[in-house]
């Protein structure tokens, strides 16, 4: 049942991020289709001043880098739930303490960067370094290596990777992919088209659905032990 809990946390985190983005893009409520493929790329109606400001200050994922607001608070809560979606799966693998720390790294880094953004929001003229969100993505590499090096493969490895991808939704590669999708749907590219970030939310929701589907496909708990060489083998918890 831990996998179902993980999927629920992914969906909850995506829901909070989506709510934050809806609030953030509220000044663009009348301009969501301006310059988009759904409007034949026509710049009608004209952008409001509030929408232009929102486009200029958009960060991709709703973190509180522009001050402590409801949007930022929802974003922090979203990061927490997404990180928890990965952490709840750690008991499904028996590893020594160093191995567990490596596996927990993506969630820890994501929460640390989110808290870093909060400190930036509380600092006059503060700015979150661009490389901060890149650290979130890079932290996945050693975690996947540990999984693959301790007997996790095939469909089970895919399941872990899917949850990891959802848990690191605030990472730079996720934001870049979302921005590319937004640019493909709209020519209003100064700096971010209205609605930017929502594609990333949809992606995480799809990952949550895939997690549930693959959990059902694999059926009963695996009988193959997944364990560190220094720890006694136990059955993987599904």
Describe this structure in words.
The model is unreliable at 220-238 (pLDDT under 50). It contains nine helices and no strands. By secondary structure, it is mainly alpha-helical. The protein starts with a helix and ends in a 20-residue tail after the last helix. The chain has one domain (2-218). The protein is globular, with a radius of gyration of 19 Å. Helix 1 packs antiparallel against helix 3 (70-87), helix 1 (2-24) packs antiparallel against helix 9 (198-218) and helix 4 (97-121) packs antiparallel against helix 5 (131-138).
> How many helices?
9
Domains (count)? 1
Secondary structure category = mainly alpha
Give the terminus-to-terminus CA distance. 6 Å
Low-pLDDT residue intervals, each spanning 5 or more residues: 220-238
Radius of gyration: 19 Å
Helix residue percentage: 55-70%
Largest β sheet strand count, sense and barrel closure: none
Order of helices and strands: HHHHHHHHH
What's the overall average pLDDT, rounded?
88
Shape: globular
Strand content: under 5%
Instruction: Give the beta-strand count.
Output: 0
What characteristics describe this protein?
single chain, 238 residues, globular
What topology does this entry show?
Elements: H1 2-24, H2 49-57, H3 70-87, H4 97-121, H5 131-138, H6 140-149, H7 154-167, H8 172-185, H9 198-218
């Amino acid at each position: 049942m831990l996998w179902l809990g993980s999927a629920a946390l992914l969906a909850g985190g995506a829901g909070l991020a989506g709510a934050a983005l809806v609030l953030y893009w509220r000044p663009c409520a009348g301009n969501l289709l301006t310059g988009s493929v759904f409007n034949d790329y026509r710049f009608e109606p004209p952008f409001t001043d509030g929408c232009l400001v929102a486009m200029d200050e958009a960060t991709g994922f709703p973190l509180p880098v522009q001050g402590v607001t409801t949007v930022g608070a929802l974003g922090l809560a979203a990061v927490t739930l997404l990180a928890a979606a990965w952490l709840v799966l750690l008991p499904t693998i028996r590893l020594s303490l160093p191995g567990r720390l490596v596996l927990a790294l993506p969630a820890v880094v994501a929460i640390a960067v989110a808290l870093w953004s909060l400190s930036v929001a509380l600092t006059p003229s503060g700015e979150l370094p661009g490389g901060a969100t890149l650290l979130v993505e890079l932290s996945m590499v050693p975690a996947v290596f540990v999984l693959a090096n301790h007997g996790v493969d095939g469909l089970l490895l895919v399941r872990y990777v899917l949850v990891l991808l959802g848990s690191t939704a605030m990472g730079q590669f996720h934001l870049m992919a979302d921005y590319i999708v937004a640019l493909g749907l709209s020519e209003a590219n100064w700096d971010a088209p209205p609605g930017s970030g929502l594609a990333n939310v949809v992606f995480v929701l799809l990952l949550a659905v895939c997690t549930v589907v693959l959990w059902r496909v694999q059926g009963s708990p695996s009988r193959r032990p997944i364990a560190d060489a220094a720890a006694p083998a136990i059955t993987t918890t599904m």
